[in-house]
Write a structure and sequence with these properties.
The complex is a heterodimer of chains A (296) and B (247). In chain A, the strands form two sheets. A seven-stranded mixed β-sheet of chain A has the order 6-7-8-3-9-10-11, sandwiched between helices. A four-stranded antiparallel β-sheet of chain A has the order 2-1-4-5, with helices on one face. In chain A, a hairpin with a 7-residue loop joins strand 9 and strand 10. Helices cover 33% and strands 23% of the residues of chain A. Chain A has a single domain, classed as P-loop containing nucleotide triphosphate hydrolases (Rossmann fold, 3-Layer(aba) Sandwich). By secondary structure, chain A is α/β, with parallel strands linked by helices. The two termini of chain A are 28 Å apart. The radius of gyration of chain A is 20 Å and the shape is globular. The two termini of chain B are 51 Å apart. Chain B contains eleven helices and no strands. Chain B folds into two domains: 58 residues; 160 residues, MetI-like (MetI-like fold, Orthogonal Bundle). Classes of the chains: A alpha/beta (296), B mainly alpha (247).
């Protein structure tokens, strides 16, 4: 039995609309995240993914419900939950070291400057930026900036790492390398991660569990997909795995049509938002009889 | 490329000198006078002054202005009583006034701008006052200042202060209010306190906008000092301009 680090309990987000009626982005959302788990959330724009992440970060408050981290309800942003922002959000007036040291210094207020810098430099070299410590963000490429963002978040040694489409602004090659780095670092430190993405392949490569959100408004978690691929998967081998297309097709099917029609799918059936179905799409052996080979 | 660039700057310089020469010659010709001497009653001629009676222009020519200017520049620090001081002393007085008024404006505008930029409540509450006070002309402040403050020097400083405070205040408030939300979120997730956040995140982020406001303000302060000193009098760089005219 793994320990539950995060428990999202019945959260909702509603905005007042001009005509006096409230717009509900999502409601009655339940989700648990175990320690050391890498969870990705996938869904279309407008389903409230970023809001969920901001609530987890404490930057936004839910209209209803609570989020419990380590047996304590979230009351605001805290250093135990580090965020990697989509647009890296580095301070342009600080150097690479300055940006990371700012975070380290905020967490360890009693540390000396030398201690702070030493700790910061450890994480700068961890993301492969050794030698660029004294560069300003404007002198760095997009990939390097995001590496600094990752180093800044990791240097806090948080209980939970929150990533909001961290690689979406990068080109395909840089994205691949950074995914590798993040996966390597998170696996080696047993980091708990919650990540938002649009990219199905990114989710399959990185995540242990993939949370599927239906379209907003009134978005809900449709199901949680357990990644059938082995933990020691490699990027260049992943597509050869027998279950790869099963899980990929399942995700794409969901994004293309089921995210839209999911409400009809469950209409009239008993539905428990506290326990959404846990799905593990695996390849059906070709020897199986035809009727069993329904859409994965 | 370098030769080309040099030749264009050389030609531009030559052209500037030529334009200056044309201007000076035209000025000289225009003020050299008609030459026609009118016969008039000596009493009336005294009233009209030499210019009218000898057919000279009322406007001094370039040579006259040049001579007076040279005289002032070569002896900038003489002091012959309250109404006759050297150019250097008078300039120092003006700069001191601008400096005082501007410094006061900085001290008020930047903290107040921070407050307005950071708090929606203060922004809304103070907006009507700013909108009413901002467009008041420096000339309109002058009599009010003279009447209430009495002292002419302090009035000048007050007018400079009140006129240069607005661009700085508005730019600071704008700069502070438009700090990227992501940066503020970073500070929030790092649990940075409000005070530290103002100095380590908001100030550097808003600095370019604040500096723009400060530059506009110093320009306005220097414009306003001429108007202020013209009315309040005393030792000024302005009194030099008008005494040049009368000598």
């Amino acid at each position: 039995m793994t320990e539950k680090l995060i428990s999202i309990e019945a959260i909702a987000k509603r905005y007042p609309a001009p005509n006096g009626v409230q717009t509900t982005v999502f409601e009655n959302l339940w989700l648990g995240i175990n320690r050391g788990e890498f969870v990705c959330m996938i869904g279309h724009s407008g389903c409230g993914k970023t809001t969920v992440l901001n609530i987890l970060a404490g930057l936004d408050a839910p209209s209803e419900g609570v989020v419990i981290v380590d047996n304590q309800a979230i009351e605001g942003p805290a250093l135990d939950r580090a965020v990697i922002f989509q647009g890296h959000a580095l301070f342009p007036w600080r150097t690479v070291l300055g940006n990371v040291a700012y975070a380290v210094g905020s967490k360890h207020k009693k540390w000396s400057k030398a201690q702070v810098n030493e700790h910061a430099e450890k994480f700068i070299s961890l993301v492969g930026l050794k030698g660029a410590e004294y560069k300003k963000p404007s002198e760095l490429s997009g990939g390097m900036k995001q590496r600094v963002g990752i180093a800044r978040a990791l240097s806090l040694e948080p209980k939970m790492l929150l990533m909001d489409e961290p690689f979406s602004a990068l080109d395909a090659l840089t994205r691949g390398t950074l995914q590798d780095e993040v996966r390597r670092i998170c696996l080696s430190t047993g980091q708990t991660v919650f990540m938002i993405t649009h990219d199905v392949d990114e989710a399959i490569y990185l995540a242990d569990k993939i949370v599927l959100m239906t379209n907003g408004p009134h978005a809900q978690i449709a199901e949680i997909v357990e990644n059938p691929l082995p933990k020691d998967r490699e990027r260049n081998q992943i597509h050869k795995h027998t279950d790869y297309y099963a899980v990929r097709n399942h995700l794409i099917d969901f994004l293309v049509s089921r995210s839209r029609t999911f409400k009809d799918e469950i209409a009239g059936k008993p539905w428990d938002p506290m326990n959404v179905p846990l799905v593990r799409p695996v390849a059906i052996p070709p020897s199986a009889p035809e009727p069993m080979r329904k859409r994965a | 490329m370098a030769i080309n660039a040099m030749s264009i700057s050389f030609r531009a310089g030559a052209l500037s000198v030529l334009i200056l020469a044309i201007f000076l010659v035209t000025w000289h010709i225009a003020t050299s006078g008609t030459g026609a001497v009118q016969q008039m009653d000596p009493e009336y001629a005294k009233l009209m002054g030499l210019n009218a009676t000898q057919g000279k222009s009322a406007m001094p020519g370039p040579l006259q202005v040049g001579a007076t200017l040279w005289q002032h520049l070569t002896n900038p620090f003489y002091d012959n009583g309250p109404n006759d001081k050297g150019l250097g002393i008078q300039l120092a007085y003006s700069i001191a006034r601008v400096g005082m008024g501007y410094l006061l404006a900085v001290m008020v505008a930047i903290p107040l701008g921070f407050l307005i930029g950071m708090s929606q409540l203060m922004s809304r509450a103070l907006d009507p006052f700013i909108q009413v006070l901002k467009p008041i002309s420096p000339l309109a402040w002058m009599p009010l200042a003279l009447y209430t403050i009495k002292d002419s020097g302090l009035s000048a400083i007050f007018v400079i202060f009140i006129c240069s405070v607005w661009p700085m205040l508005i730019n600071t408030a704008f700069g502070v209010a438009s700090v990227r939300k992501e940066w503020l979120n970073v500070a929030r997730t790092l649990e940075v306190g409000a005070f530290k956040r103002a100095f380590t995140v908001i100030l550097p982020a808003a600095a370019p906008t604040i500096l723009t406001g400060m530059r506009i303000s110093i320009g306005i302060a220097w414009l306003v000092i001429v108007a202020a000193e013209m009315i309040v009098g005393g030792t000024t760089s302005r009194s030099r301009t008008s005494s040049t005219r009368s000598s």
